[in-house]
Amino acid sequence: MTKNNILKNAFIDAQLDSRVIYTYDFSAYFNEKMQRIIKMQKGFGRLINTASKRAACIVLAIILCFTTVACSVKEIREPVFEEIKRIVVNAKELLRGTAAHDVAYLFPTDIIKIVGTSHISENKNQYYINEKEKITSFIKLLSETQWGSPKQFEEFEKANIYWSFDFYNSNGERVLEIKMCNDTAYERSKIAIIKDGEENHFYISNKIYNEILAFTNQKYYLHNSPVGDIDDSFFIEKKKTVFKGMNEEYKREAQKRIRSLHYEMEHFLMSNVSLLKEGDSIYWEYVINENIFIDPISGLERKYDINRIFRYEMEYLISVVEDKRTKESLIDVLTLYEQAVAEHNLSALFKVHEYIHDYDYFAFNFPTHYVYSEDADYQGINDYFGKLG
Fold first, then answer.
1. Contact yes or no for 169/108 (Cβ under 8 A)
2. How far is the C-alpha of 157 from the C-alpha of 314, rounded, in Å?
3. Which of the two ends of the chain, N or C, has the fewest CB atoms closer than 10 A to its terminal CB?
4. What would the pLDDT profile of 364-379 be if each residue is shown by its tens digit?
5. Given strand 113-118, what is the order of strands in its sheet?
6. Is residue 45 pLDDT above 70, yes or no?
7. Are the CB atoms for 255 and 364 separated by under 8 Å?
8. Residue 322: its pLDDT value, please?
9. Which helix (H) or strand (E) holds 190?
10. Residue 221: left (phi > 0), alpha (psi -120 to 50), or beta?
11. pTM to 2 decimals?
């Protein structure tokens, strides 16, 4: 009986209902082949037990060998390093010869990533600046202001952190940190640079301070939409509509109150935009509560009055306006304000300001005029109407 027939008969007998007892005598050659097949189903052999699998393993081995060799070949390795060098930014060189020349020595020559962290947000939200063009733009922004020493102004010992920016080199090491230390609109803003564990304090312009804060997220404008070339007669008619049915006493009071509310909104937004950009900012709850509080970052006593003032003034205006359409519009503005505060929506608050702004300048108080107030954004008047006499 041949070896093939012996194996075939063994398989057939194994499936019969009644056991058939035969004595099968397999040759040494057959037993050796079967042991090899069994071994191929275990361990590494099972992974390469077909021609296609063995071929794939050979190709993979070749690729690994080629990669190892390639890293040691100058013609192949140099382009890789050239690509890394291409995205590295030399901050020190960008700052030399600019308004920030005196602080250039603090900055590294090798920056590949900047990470901005919002310390006003509950979740410490982070923003990544990791493209060469954006990193360069950020560094150039730092060059657009003088960096004054505290000795020139007032000293500040503690650098309260509202935002921070960490600079990383191509090795992934943090080589510099900038702390943003102001929270409100001053002529000069506090900033700290930390290098090698040493904290260096400076003052920069408030404008650039706010530009830095706005670099990683949305930028807001109080006055960014001039009304264009519209005949004065249009606004005169709007004013007549707003005041329809009102006596002179109510007119004058309404004019004063909407102007006051307008400037309160401007002051609040200009002073707190950087604190309220994050939806999870720790400062939103203080806006809602209206209570005196200890600032969790600066430790100073503060209070937001905008909620009380806005509601009080809007409710008065709604009560004295007789024109139905104007009354409904003012109610909509109040509703939008309440929703914006409840939802921590800063964009909606800027839209509320836009509505109050337009009602003030283009209806209640048209033609507009300067009213001295420390809260007013007079540049906004100039943007809309040109320089007034």
1. yes
2. 43
3. C
4. 999 876 665 666 665 5
5. 126-129, 113-118, 163-168, 174-180, 188-195, 198-205
6. no
7. yes
8. 96
9. strand 188-195
10. beta
11. 0.72
Peptide bond preceding 367 in cis form (omega within 30 of 0):
yes
Q: Determine the residue type at 347.
A: S
Q: How confident is the model at residue 255 (pLDDT cuts 50, 70, 90)?
A: very high
What is the number of other CB atoms lying within 10 angstroms of the CB of residue 76?
A: 13
Query: Residue 200's Cα: distance from chain center in Å?
Result: 26
Other C-beta atoms closer than 10 Å to the C-beta of 220 total 19
Lowest mean pLDDT across 66-70, 175-179, 315-319, 379-383: 66-70
Place of tokens 């009602």: 359
Expressed in angstroms, the distance from the first to the final Cα of the chain is: 121
Look at residues 35, 38, 57, 39 and name the one whose alpha carbon lies nearest to residue 48: 57
* The pair of three-digit structure tokens given for residue 303, joined into one six-digit string: 């209070």
Q: Can you name the residues that pair with 127 across neighbouring β-strands?
A: 116
Cβ(142)–Cβ(212) under 8 Å? Answer: yes
**Identity of residue 16:** L
Q: Rounded to an integer, what distance in angstroms lies between the CA atom of residue 356 and that of residue 342?
A: 19
Q: Is the CA virtual torsion 346, 120, 310, 184 positive or negative? A: negative
CA–CA separation, 39 and 27 (whole Å): 19
For residue 100, what is the DSSP state?
T
